[in-house]
């Protein structure tokens, strides 16, 4: 039965897969034997990620330059992925950006649009090109988006980020309903507080406050993210679709 966790021969795309949670997702997939296509912007980080992932498993690893805020780059990365691997079975739409601390009465159209373009539209357009292929191929597939607990919780000075992730949740449910007939499942992981490069830039007082608020009294483990990636890419999750799963140590109920 544990062979169900063997992803040998399956091809997974991970957007933003060269650092943080995205790299952890890709690492889990590589360890399970999957071929992994990393779509991300930074060439140096892409090279480093490929080297690390190649040492993690037996699957093929490639990185393709892609800013998901630019539809033409998404289309190009998809075409290059298909040339390299011939198919895509799984897509982790993980790429995103922070909005920076900004109160609603300070919000600008540019600040709002910049976050929405990457966090919401970027996921939708990634799915547009991936699902076009999956539907034509006729063998189903898995779509997993990285959302945030902020999408279901009140948050100060970050409304544009919270709204962008709430859009991802709505997209997930709509995609699950629309694509079920093609055997394509769509789910979202609502990540809480993980120690990544992004959170490392936060005020230390914020970290202390989070440790007091999270019932588990600790930040998320990137090793745990690896296991989640394998589960949602594997046949074990075939009957799960349209779900927005909080991965946050209980933060959303505190």
General description of the model:
The protein has eight helices and seven strands. It has 254 residues and is α/β, with parallel strands linked by helices. The protein has a single domain (2-253), classed as Rossmann fold (3-Layer(aba) Sandwich), CATH 3.40.50.720. Strand 5 (141-148), helix 5 and strand 6 form a beta-alpha-beta unit. Helix 3 (71-85) packs parallel to helix 4. It starts with 10 loop residues before the first strand and ends in a 7-residue tail after the last strand.
Write the CATH architecture name.
3-Layer(aba) Sandwich
Q: Given the C-alpha coordinates, what overall shape results?
A: globular
As a whole number of angstroms, the C-alpha radius of gyration is 17 Å
Helix content: 40-55%
What does the largest sheet look like? 7 strands, parallel
Class from secondary-structure proportions: alpha/beta
CATH names the topology as Rossmann fold
Q: What letter string, H or E per element, gives the SSE order?
A: EHEHEHEHEHEHHHE
Strand content: 15-25%
Strand order, largest beta sheet = 3-2-1-4-5-6-7
Which CATH C-level class is it?
Alpha Beta
The number of E-state strands comes to 7
In terms of per-residue confidence, which ranges show pLDDT below 50 for 5 or more consecutive residues?
Answer: none
Tell me the number of helical segments per DSSP (H or I, 4 or more residues long). 8
N-end to C-end Cα span:
37 Å
Q: CATH superfamily membership, which one?
A: NAD(P)-binding Rossmann-like Domain
């Amino acid at each position: 039965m544990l062979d169900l966790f063997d992803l040998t021969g399956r091809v997974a795309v991970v957007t933003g897969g060269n650092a943080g949670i995205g790299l952890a997702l890709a690492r889990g997939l590589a360890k399970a034997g999957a071929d992994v296509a990393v779509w991300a912007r930074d060439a140096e980080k892409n090279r480093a990620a490929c080297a690390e992932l190649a040492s993690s498993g037996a699957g093929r690893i490639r990185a393709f330059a892609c800013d998901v805020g630019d539809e033409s780059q998404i289309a190009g990365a998809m075409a290059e992925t298909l040339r390299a691997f011939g198919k895509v079975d799984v897509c982790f739409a993980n790429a995103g950006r922070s909005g920076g601390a900004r109160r609603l009465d300070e919000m600008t159209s540019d600040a709002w649009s910049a976050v929405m373009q990457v966090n919401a539209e970027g996921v939708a357009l990634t799915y547009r090109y991936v699902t076009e292929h999956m539907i034509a191929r006729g063998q189903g597939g898995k779509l997993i988006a990285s959302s945030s607990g902020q999408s279901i919780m009140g948050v100060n000075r970050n409304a544009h980020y919270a709204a962008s992730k709430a859009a991802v949740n709505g997209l997930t449910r709509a995609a699950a309903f629309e694509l079920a007939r093609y055997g394509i499942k769509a789910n979202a992981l609502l990540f809480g507080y993980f120690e990544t490069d992004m959170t490392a830039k936060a005020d230390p007082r914020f970290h202390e406050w989070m440790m007091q608020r999270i019932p588990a009294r600790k930040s998320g483990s990137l090793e745990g993210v690896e296991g989640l990636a394998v589960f949602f890419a594997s046949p074990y999750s075939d009957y799960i679709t349209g779900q927005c799963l909080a991965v946050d140590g209980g933060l959303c109920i505190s």
